[in-house]
Amino acid sequence: MSELIDDLRLELGIPDENDLVLTEDIFAEAIGPEVMQRVRSVTVHGGVLEVEVDDPAIASLLKYQGQSVVRDVNQRAGRKVLERIKVRHS
User: Fold this and answer.
1) How many degrees, rounded to 5, is the angle at CA 81 between CA 80 and CA 87?
2) Three-state secondary structure call for residue 2
3) Model-level pTM?
4) Which of 4, 26, 3, 31 is nearest to 82 (CA)?
């Protein structure tokens, strides 16, 4: 049963709970508390970290830092958890 649930989760692009927590922690460390205060939401879907921010300058910063965060998450997880970051400005 557990394998079936894992297969379905992967097919739908839903991250493992541990991967989500790890991703959020590393993301918060990478961008710092001041920038994190400007982040409205963080989700992971299908290997894409989706971030919504309220400031265009913060959006640009996160786009610039994106590959570094992806690399850090994948290294700390010991496998490929993320492929890219998608930043939206609201």
Assistant:
1) 120
2) helix
3) 0.73
4) 26
Nearest to 44 by CA among 2, 89, 90, 86: 86
- Residues 17-42 pLDDT 10s: 777 787 888 888 888 899 888 888 78
Burial 14-31 (b: 16+ CB within 10 A, else e): ebeeebbebbbebbeebb
Side chain identity at residue 26, one-letter code: I
**Paired tokens of 22:** 């790890």
The structure tokens listed for 44 are 């992971």
Average pLDDT of the chain? 82
Backbone angles phi, psi at 54, to 5 degrees: -105, 10
The structure tokens 């961008």 sit at 31
Q: At what angle do helices 17-36 and 56-77 cross, to 10 degrees?
A: 140
Q: What is residue 56's predicted lDDT score, i.e. its pLDDT?
A: 94
- Sequence letter at residue 31: I
Q: Tell me which CATH code domain 2-89 carries.
A: 3.30.300
